[in-house]
Each structure stands twice: as C-alpha cells, then as structure tokens.
Write a sequence for this structure.
RNA sequence: CGGGAUGUGGCUCAGCCUGGUUAGAGCGCUGCACUGGGGGUGCAGAGGUCGCAAGUUCGAAUCUUGUCAUCCCGACCA
C-alpha cells in the first residue's frame, strides 16, 4: 500500500520482520509483548507478568496431566553436594562444564570497603543443573522393598546451567522447569513410563500450544548424559530450525547403581531399581513465540492465553457512561460462556489512552480476540471483532458473537495448529545424497531463512560427524512413526535400517 | 578460552578522525490544548558531565595508557 508511506507508523508492529532478521525479530517480539527483559545478571532474565501468566497456564495444564497419570509433586534442594555429581561418570561429563559452584557461606568486609567471601565450605555445593543425583540419593533411602515401588514424583523448580551463550527463554543461565523422577521395579515398567510421559508432552504441545511435534529417540551422541534412551519432542520454528521442546529419559539402572537404589523383590533377591526422568522448561515459551507469532507481535493459542478476549470501549466524553455500561454487560455475557471446559477469560481495557495505541498494545501481546464497541455498534447491535490471525476486523452481531465465542476460540486454536503443521510439512524433505544434503542446508546469506527438516537414511552416526559439524546440522531424532523403510545411507551408501530427522537446531 | 566491536539522559544513537563558549537528536516520560473507531497534532517541560582511573594539554566526550563491563563470531548446550 503506497499510502502507508505517508504515515509515520511502520507497516508492521515489529521491526525487523521475520524475513529481514529472525533472531532480532524474536527479541523484539518478547519486548513488544512485555514477556520478559534482561536482568543485571548475565544470562538471567526477568519474566514479567504477561510472560509469567503464560508460564502459569503451562504449569497448570501440565500439572493436571501429571496428576492424572499418577504423579505427585515434591521439592528437593537447590544445592547438591559436589560428590554426588561425581558418582555417575557420564553425567559428570555432561554437566560439569556448566555448573555454578558455591564454595563459601559468609561475606565479610574487605580492606577496600567492599565484601569478600569467607567461611570456606568443607565440600563445595553445586547449584542443581538437574536433580537426578540428589533425588536418587534420597530415593535410595526410601526404597527397601518392591512394595515401595513405583515412586512417581515431579518437582517444579529452577535450575542453573552456566551457558556461554544465552537467548531469552530458549537458553538462559537460570530457567524454570519441571523434572519428573520415577523409580520402578522392572525395566519394562520404566520404559513404559518414559513413553507415557513423552506422550503427555506431545499431547500438551499439540493440543494446548497448537504446536505440532515429532516424537522420536535421540541418537547415542545426542542422548542425555547417563541415559540409556532419550525420547524427545521436536518442533519446527518459523525459521525452519528445530527446537527440542521436551525430553523423557529411560535411565536404566545407571543412576540406581550409582546411587544404590536397591530393593528386595518378591522372590527375595536384592535388585537395582530402574529409573526415569523427564522435563520441560520455560523454553516452551520460546517455542510458543517462534511457532505462531507474526510481524505484528505475539500470537497466543487461546488455550494458553491469559486473556481470551479484550474489550475496548470507544467513546467520547458524553457517551462514556452508556458505552461502559453496555461493555460491562457484554463482558458478563461473554464470561458466562465456556471454551475448552473453562469460562471465557474477558477483560475490559478502559485506560485513557488513544484507541490506536490501545489496539496495537493488545495485538502485540497476542490476545486472541479484540472487541471494539462504540455508540455506532450499540445502535446497530453489533461489535467490531478482530481475531489475532485475521488481517481485518469485522462487524458482527452481538448476540451471535456471544453465542459463538467458544467456537471462535476453538477455530483459532485449530487454525494456529494447522498453519504450523503446514509450515513444517512444506519444509520437510527426504534427502538421498550428500549433494542434496549440502544443498538443502547450505547457507544462502546472512538473514536468509533456509533449510528445514530432512529425512535421511543413515548407517553410522559417527561417520556423519564431520559433515554435520561443517554444516551445523544435527540429528534431531529417530522418529517413532513413518520410519519403517529400509534404504541406504545418504553419505556412505551403506545399508541403513532407519531414517532420522536432520535439521539445524536451537 | 581464541577472533572482532562497543561503552554518551529510561531506550536507540549522533558527536570523537581534524581537542575549545551552557553536550545533541529520535523515541519514551510529565503537563496543557486540540483531537477522538485508531498507535494523531501543537505548545511547554523533566532528565545526561559523556563506563572507570590515570596521563598529555591553557582546555578532553573527543588524544594516550590502563582497567572494568557488555555485545557479536567461534568451541559447548534444555
């Protein structure tokens, strides 16, 4: 539209656009939507109310699902004795480099008028990067008999991983998550638990976040340190990179042997138990942003949106009272409706700021439905309705709106999922040769969005490493479904029994 | 830890190369007015001593040295 150049306002609310500079767009969406900001501590972020409400909705939904699958919540310490980490060799290798270490327990004045650490600890404590070890040590005391099993516990907590490079929500030094830790009498039961929980994650990602995911197994090199098998859900972001959104680990007897989680079986033998762990983090918020948001800001799936509907009264001084009254009754009627078995969440924004500014405020924050109601609408019995994934607002009969509000939210939820799925399918290919592989993942410019998901047969993970490293591609997972075909390795030509998804990843 | 860059009002930055009166802009913020289905217009304001330290100089945001911090690119990662 040429006319737009006349006005000062940018054509999109977020600048740059996804096409122009995706990483910067991501940062700007977070800022514009008021989700979070950087803190004085490097790599740590302040999650602001709008962002935290999103996380609370994530927590609530998942927590219900955990409870429904028989789990209970508990809480374990933030600090872990360093010796605990040393017990599981692979685990140490995986996390040692990124641990924050507490070595002192007191501060005292130093000669320069500042403070310095004093009271050196006998044994350093690490700030948990994950809690397998300390929970395992605790479980070892709880488990004596097969009658004590299974143990099905989850904790909601913060963890710290001292990363070199951080990005808001996707990788921060401190992040919020949940970690489930279970103990079972048999391998089969633990495997079943691992699979059950990755399925919970898939269900949540697809039905709450409207984010299609691929469920698969990690290859040995990509596995969680110390795990026998790692299952994950992988999603494609709008820049076609993959994001691991949740993991569920079958830990075999590795941790129970290291932590001595033993029990006496029905037959009287002493056996090591079988454990699992599974988690998702605030990274899901990053996934949500990168799956649905557009160049006007955040787009929220209704099931997780803190507010479903915001009503914006339009009035001049002389019509204020009647418009407000009308709008309040509309709010009450809408709030009496239900969506996804819960009341519709409606708010009125009657702040004394200009209408346009107010409109964009809510667009950028991703509110699913905006309603504008002024004297003209009152006279006509209509409301002006803008749905976040639709470019234009439309007038709609008031009674009809109230009657169909739940339906509209459900439609939006579905459309967001469908669009994300289409995005993934349009950018998923099958590659059969190194030339195809190189071409698909080649860098085509600084900000150009390229690549996607590639299905490839492969025979041996190690032999692929030089190529993968060169192109910055990783094996995301060996998908659980659509994977039965036999073929030949795209690189070596050797026979290959399985295919994996290859992609650049966060 | 290697390579590159930057530190000036709340935010984004200009000024620095070619040192010189009260350090600028846009956005944001405060107030008033006009507006009022659209992130508008006008007027009036608040707010910085230029990361820190030392040095050169009659004089430094501008030059020198040191230092701290941050950011980007690599090796590592939910």
């Amino acid at each position: 539209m040429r006319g737009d150049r006349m006005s000062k306002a940018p054509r999109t609310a977020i600048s740059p656009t996804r096409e122009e500079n995706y990483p910067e767009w991501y940062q700007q969406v977070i800022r514009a939507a008021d989700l979070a900001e950087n803190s004085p501590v490097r790599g740590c972020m302040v999650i602001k109310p709008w962002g935290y409400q999103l996380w609370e909705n994530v927590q609530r939904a998942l927590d219900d699902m955990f409870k429904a699958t028989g789990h209970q919540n508990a809480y374990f310490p933030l600090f872990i004795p360093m010796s605990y980490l040393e017990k599981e060799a692979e685990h140490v290798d995986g996390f040692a480099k990124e641990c924050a270490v507490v070595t002192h327990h007191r501060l005292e004045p130093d000669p320069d008028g500042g403070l310095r650490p004093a009271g050196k600890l006998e044994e350093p404590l690490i700030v948990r990067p994950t809690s397998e070890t300390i929970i395992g040590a605790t479980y070892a005391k709880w488990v004596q008999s097969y009658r004590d099993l299974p143990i099905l516990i989850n904790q909601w907590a913060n963890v710290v991983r001292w990363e070199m490079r951080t990005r808001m929500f996707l990788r921060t030094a401190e992040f919020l998550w949940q970690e489930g830790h279970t103990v079972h009498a048999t391998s089969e039961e633990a495997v079943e638990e691992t699979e059950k929980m990755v399925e919970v994650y898939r269900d949540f990602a697809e039905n709450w976040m409207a984010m299609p995911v691929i469920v698969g197994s990690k290859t040995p090199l990509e596995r969680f340190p110390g795990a026998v098998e790692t299952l994950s859900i992988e999603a494609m972001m709008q820049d076609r990179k993959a994001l691991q959104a949740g993991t569920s680990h079958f830990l075999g007897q590795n941790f129970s042997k290291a932590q001595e989680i033993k029990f006496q079986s029905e037959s009287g033998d002493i056996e090591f138990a079988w454990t699992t762990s599974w988690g998702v983090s605030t990274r899901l918020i990053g996934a949500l942003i990168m799956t649905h948001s557009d160049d006007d800001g955040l787009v929220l799936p209704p099931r997780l949106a803190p507010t479903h509907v915001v009503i914006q009264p339009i009035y001049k001084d002389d019509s204020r009272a009647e418009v407000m009254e009308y709008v309040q009754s509309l709010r009450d009627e809408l709030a009496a409706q239900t969506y996804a078995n819960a009341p519709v969440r409606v708010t009125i924004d009657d702040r004394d700021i200009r209408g346009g500014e107010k409109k964009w405020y809510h667009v950028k924050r991703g509110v699913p439905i905006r309603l504008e109601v002024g004297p003209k609408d009152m006279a006509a019995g209509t409301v002006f309705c803008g749905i976040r994934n639709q470019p234009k607002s439309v007038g709609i009969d008031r009674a009809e709106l109230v009657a169909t509000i739940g339906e509209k939210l459900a439609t939006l939820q579905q459309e967001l999922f469908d669009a994300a799925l289409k995005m993934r399918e349009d950018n998923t290919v099958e590659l059969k040769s190194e030339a195809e592989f190189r071409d698909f993942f080649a860098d085509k410019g600084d900000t150009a969005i390229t690549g996607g998901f590639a299905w490839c047969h492969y025979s041996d993970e190690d032999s692929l490493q030089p190529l993968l490293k060169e192109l910055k591609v990783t094996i995301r997972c060996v998908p659980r479904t659509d994977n039965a075909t036999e073929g030949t390795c795209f690189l070596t030509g050797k026979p290959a029994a399985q295919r994996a998804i290859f992609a650049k990843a966060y």
Q: What stands out?
A: Chain A has a mean pLDDT of 90. The first helix of chain A runs from residue 22 to 32. Chain A has three domains: 33-86+128-292, 309-422, 428-503. The CA atoms of residues 216 and 479 of chain A lie 4 Å apart.
